[in-house]
Amino acid sequence: MTATQRRGRRIMMTDAERDAFLGEQRTCRVATVSADGNPHVAPLWYVWHGGSLWLYSITRSRRWTQLGKDPRVAVVVDDGTDYGELRGVELSGRVVPVGEAPRTGAACPEPELAEVERLFASKNFGLDEMVHDGRHAWLRLTPTTVVSWDFRKLGGEFGH
After folding, report:
1. What is the spatial distance between Cα 125 and Cα 72, in angstroms, rounded to a whole number?
2. pTM of the prediction?
3. Number of domains within the chain
4. Is residue 67 part of a domain?
5. Parent domain of 106
6. 3-state secondary structure labels for all residues of 63-114
7. Model pLDDT for residues 108-149, shown as the tens digit of each residue
8. Do residues 144 and 69 lie in contact, with contact meaning Cβ atoms separated by under 8 Å?
9. Does residue 77 carry a pLDDT above 60?
10. 8 pLDDT exceeds 90?
11. Residue 140 domain flag
């Protein structure tokens, strides 16, 4: 095992640390690719629930259109300013739409969506229930790959 691999293991978040981090953060960056191969990255609010990242996207967005044609996605959630406090999670896989698109609040056959919407409304708006605007819809990413880092675990040993 190389020194880089050892350091990577030392700064990797545990599952509990990752879940707590994803639960407290609000904004992720979603990377998609168009049919002609051009990448697109944009910020988006999300909820981490049940081992999935739930993305609430405008259905007329470039992101929604691209994911409708190619559901592969990479998402980064990160935090920190100074090198020694950087931490984050990169998740990748394929998204699937959940519920109606756009979402108006009609009953959804996906029972988990009610809890996701409650968490999203509380986290981002301080509300007890979701307010639907008829412009957004849900995408669920159950990641196939997860990479995490927390440079705070190095305790001042920062070597770039």
Report:
1. 29
2. 0.88
3. 1
4. yes
5. 3-81+89-145
6. HHHHHHHCCEEEEEEEECCCHHHCEEEEEEEEEEEECCCCCCCCCCCCCHHH
7. 777 889 999 999 999 999 999 898 999 999 999 999 999 999
8. no
9. yes
10. no
11. yes
CATH number at residue 47: 2.30.110.10
CA distance to 32, 40, 107, 156, per residue, from 27 (Å)? 16, 16, 27, 27
Count of C-beta atoms within a 10 Å radius of residue 8: 14
Give SS3 for 126.
coil
Contacts 24+ apart (CB under 8 A), 61-65: 62/32, 63/30, 63/32, 64/137, 64/139
**Strand pairing report for 39-49 and 145-150:** unpaired
Map residue 56 onto helix, strand or coil: strand
Separation of CA 155 from chain center: 27
